Amino acid sequence: MAAEQRRSAASGECPPPPVPSRRLRHLAGNLLLALAASVATYAALEIMLRVAAHRILPGGESFSTACIFRPEDDPVGYALEPGTSRILCAGGAYTVRDRINSLGLRDVERRYENPSGIGRILLLGDSFTFGQGVPMESCFARRMDRDLRGVEVINSGVPGYGLDQEYLLYKDRARRFGADLVLLVFFVNDLDFPASMDLVRDESGLPVRFRHRSEVVARREARAPRGLRGAISSCLKAHSVLYSLVRDRLDTLRYRLEHSDAIPGAQGRRPDYLTVFLTAPDGEAKEKWERGFRTLDALRALVERNGSHLAIASIPASWQLSEERFDGWAGYFGVDPRTISRTKPDEMLAGWCRRTGTPFLPLLDAFDGRGSAGLYFPYDLHLSSRGHEIAAEAIEAFLRARHLVPGDRAGTGERTQPAGTPR
Fold it and tell me: Measured between alpha carbons, how far is 102 from 172 in angstroms, rounded to an integer?
């Protein structure tokens, strides 16, 4: 090689490029092999987690990939972000993908306009109506949409919403669907709202708008990704379950280290919604129900002005399915079972519905005595696919029996005119 370089220099020719040594070629090959193995391992782990992350995650813990929520949305405080999707994993329960349509609903594509005049049912609710934990086609809204032929069943459920936000959602945008029937799906915590938010009420006590507390906004802005590193992290968070899991574990570890003194007292702390079960509501519980009834009065009046009808269905919690489970749940929070009743929320709603002539379906009747096994997810406590199936069957039977299916006049099958356009 040296002799060739001297000859090239003497003749004025450019010397040939040096040939990589065998050692360098071997090193490069090993690096490429290691890179390929790393990519293949990452891909295999990613695929496995997308299918069965809930089998790895500890029971009661959860994480998700991209956020599907719009953090600021007046007047409801927050809402589903149109066109987003996520993979949600709950330990010991489920791994499921949620997709949000262009109108901000977990539903097939919809339009506010209804040029064909097809009958419509609008569902208002929280994560149970949203169908958290089950594929979209398994939730009771989609089952009803398939079973009630010639009728669109529109799912406007949003995780974390309570009665006040559901009222504002209908008032602000959902009434534009011009639904013939508005079915409010109630859960026991619907008289409360997220602790991270403040609610502005008018002089009569009706909700006007929700706003995130200033400390929540400041914390969110401080954690917002910035620069190239933030952009890469956001991209991985949005598309990789493995990255999201690792990131969530690190965030959880950091939180526990920072709040280690607060963790032991968290278990057994009474939830705010426990008061709705009091057999003799007074003080805070009585005030909650009175505010809730005022909101229901306003919702009913708004629905009727919109040319629609209102009906209510209540979904039971898993601990309401038997006296034994209910007493165990009360005991966990240190509450005397004699002071509360598992049927009290339904009794309160039934009383309001009788006074106003509003059709009411307590789904506890359909679930009672079946036991929660297989109907609810463990730890997460949302309805499983089987639970959604039972809910859909009961709601459909109720609507048919009460002649509430749009287009069915007094059960004769004769088609009626759809609801008028929103006013």
Answer: 17
